[in-house]
Amino acid sequence: MTAAAAVFDTLLDRTIAPGYTRLGFGWRRRHWPADDPRPDAMRGRTALVTGANSGIGKAIAAGLAGLGGTVLLAVRDRARGEQACTEIRAAHPAADVAVIVCDVSDPQSVTACADELADRLARLDVLIHNAGMLPPERTETAEGHELTLAVHVLGPLLLTERLVPLLGAADAARVILMSSGGMYSQPLAVDDPEYRHGRYRGAIAYARTKRMQVALTPLLAEHYAPQGIAFHSMHPGWADTPGVVTSLPLFHRITGPLLRSPEEGADTAVWLAATAATLPSGQFWHDRRVRPEHYLRRTHFRADDRDRLWRFCREAAGLDVD
Ligand SMILES: NC(=O)c1ccc[n+]([C@@H]2O[C@H](COP(=O)([O-])OP(=O)(O)OC[C@H]3O[C@@H](n4cnc5c(N)ncnc54)[C@H](OP(=O)(O)O)[C@@H]3O)[C@@H](O)[C@H]2O)c1
Predict the structure, then answer these.
(1) What is the pLDDT of residues 212-224, one digit of tens each?
(2) Fold of domain 36-316
(3) Is the distance from CB of 265 to CB of 59 less than 8 angstroms?
(4) Which amino acid residue places its CA nearest to atom 7 of ligand 1?
């Protein structure tokens, strides 16, 4: 990318709407660095994608299968997962895809999924924490955790930990957390991670827990570096998916024609998973470039706040704190 293109790219990023829509994607794809994954980049490699029955997750699964990978669609509803597999095979007849049940909000389901994978696989090369949701009202899991915290943070922490033996057995495994540009609006909710205080708004709960994913990524990178596992968080821009239609109908109506396709939203996740380039672990990405973690001064936090959140989340996920 030329210096002028880099400046324009940054401008797109800071002005938000142009960069997050298909306009930004269309411009940037003409300036990708020359490290597109090879057509068979995932051959011989296995990936697990959570929330892969619809939207961006399905597009990630299709993208990785199209690059020759074995892809497991981790879904909470087997029938919807099988339907997604059928659609992926229709687009990529040689696709090696299968379903595994995993409700990310439910620790028993996460543990059962990891146990089944341990029986089925010798190693896991890529784990993509894509499952996401935006609830209309405050909801708790059976364990008493606020639902977005459970789906976006606690479930991914638990699933990652349970899969460490398989990830560690791979040659340089990659774990990707699908965050959201919405996280830029929120500071780290370290004093109230379960959102017990103040008026609950689903969009704020969503953005807070997406902020937590990004904040915890460097700590995950550090924690699992001895096992050779790299961590990347990212945001997909604004993509036209069933989740956006259902959860943000007004936003969808206003931005409709400018939204990215699910495949465009999936692009950076597929690239992070499949590129032959050696990427720095622990960074936050969008459109194949490392992006800042903050636009606003008020969202900055101290390192000890992040450490406190790490300890809280590890404990809440039922994991050793250290
Ligand atoms: N679309 C965008 O513009 C946008 C922007 C920023 C970030 N994102 C992020 O991108 C990811 C995908 O979103 P999307 O837009 O593609 O939405 P989507 O079409 O609603 O897909 C979300 C997926 O997550 C699954 N899911 C939700 N809760 C789950 C649970 N407890 N266990 C397992 N799976 C669960 C859903 O399964 P069911 O079908 O069973 O509900 C669905 O497959 C999310 O993390 C979202 O936050 C999207």
Answers:
(1) 999 999 999 999 9
(2) Rossmann fold (3.40.50)
(3) yes
(4) 180
